[in-house]
Amino acid sequence: MSDAVAILDPAPIAAMLRAAMPDLVEVGTATDFGSLTAQTIRWPSAFVITLAETAGPNTYQSDHILKQRVLARFGVVWAVRDLGDLKGSIAAGDIRTVRMAGMSALCRFAPEGAQTKCEPVSGRLVSSIDKQGQMLWQDDFTVAFQRLIPTN
User: Fold this and answer.
1) CA distance 114 to 123
2) Distance, CA of 67 to chain centre
3) Given this model, what pLDDT does residue 35 score?
């Protein structure tokens, strides 16, 4: 994020997950997720998707600039095969292990320009579970930053 008109960029978050969780077969963003089909999903994978932004009241405004605190919300969709693997490995796609490793990495990470590290806020199943135990789970996170908007 830059100082002027900061908007959350999911690519650095995806890059951090890729580095922190090398057993994931694929890590991408909304573009990658949007191009998936049932035949092309590789397990386990993760996709970072920007969900929403909530701007707070202006903390400063002049003839030249407006400043506000923004809370950005993003989701990580985990494509996993939850086969009840007792080894609990990321490579096997165990949902509990994948989520715990992902949350741990994300809660230590602050995107460039952010005022906070990523914080988990909710999670939910977003697909049915097929006969091979394949499923999509989404965890949502927030991160705060300052947005500076030139007004002249």
Assistant:
1) 22
2) 25
3) 96
pTM: 0.89
Supply the angle between the helices 10-20 and 95-107 in degrees, to the nearest 10. Answer: 120
- CATH of residue 67: 3.30.2000.10
Q: Is residue 5 in some structural domain?
A: no
> What are the b/e assignments for 60-79, b being 16+ CB within 10 Å?
eeeeeebebebbbbbbbbbb
Dihedral angle over CA of 99, 104, 108, 111, nearest 10:
-10
Q: How many domains does the chain have?
A: 1
pLDDT digit string (tens) for 92-113? 668 888 999 999 999 999 999 8
